[in-house]
Amino acid sequence: MLNFNNEKLNKEINEIIMIENIQKGTFLGFEGEYCQNFPIIKHGKVKAFKTDNQGKEIDLYTIKDGEGCILTFKCIFNNEPLSANLIVEENSEIYFIPRTDFKNFFEKYSEFRNFIMSIILQNLDKKFLSE
């Protein structure tokens, strides 16, 4: 389970967090849907992609061990539909934090907020500085 330097947060988050083994090829979300959970990859790989007018996939990014999805974060915080598809690329173990709890933890606990912002900044760094 997730572990923070805050016993109250640890107790609360570990009471609501779901952990699932998801098979390769499973969609976690579709473009246009609203996000119900924030995924954090414990082990595995998930790809975010769009499909163009000719049906060709356009890969946006991949999230791996210890990472979360930037577009899911955007979907939850802006209360807007997901702007890409999310598919599991290899059998994965994924933490899911329900939408409402995610927002509450983000607002209530600096430890959780720092953890999530660190995940997002690592994803941005990887996407824009490693290419």
Walk me through what this model shows:
The chain is α+β, with helices and mostly antiparallel strands and 131 residues long. It has a single domain, classed as Jelly Rolls (Sandwich). It has four helices and five strands. It has helices spanning 7-16, 70-78, 99-108, 110-129, and strands at 18-22, 27-29, 37-51, 57-64, 85-98. Strands 1, 2, 3, 4 and 5 form a five-stranded antiparallel β-sheet that branches. The longest helix is centred in the last third of the chain and has 20 residues, at 110-129. The chain is globular.
Detail the topology: elements first, then pairings.
Layout lengths: L6 H10 L1 E5 L4 E3 L7 E15 L5 E8 L5 H9 L6 E14 H10 L1 H20 L2
Antiparallel strand pairs: 1-5, 2-5, 3-4, 3-5
Helix pairs in contact: 3-4
In short:
The chain has 131 residues and is of the alpha+beta class.
Which labels suit this protein?
131 residues, alpha+beta, Jelly Rolls
CATH class: Mainly Beta
Total helical segments: 4
General form: globular
The N- to C-terminal Cα distance equals 32 Å
What is the makeup of the main sheet? 5 strands, antiparallel
| Succession of helices and strands | HEEEEHEHH
Number of strands: 5
- Would you tell me the overall average pLDDT? 92
Helix content percent band: 25-40%
- The CATH architecture assignment turns out to be Sandwich
User: What is the CA-based Rg, rounded?
Assistant: 15 Å
Q: Report the portion of residues in β strands.
A: 25-35%
Query: CATH superfamily membership, which one?
Result: Jelly Rolls
Helix/strand-derived category reads alpha+beta
Number of domains: 1
CATH topology: Jelly Rolls
Which spans have pLDDT < 50 for at least 5 consecutive residues? none
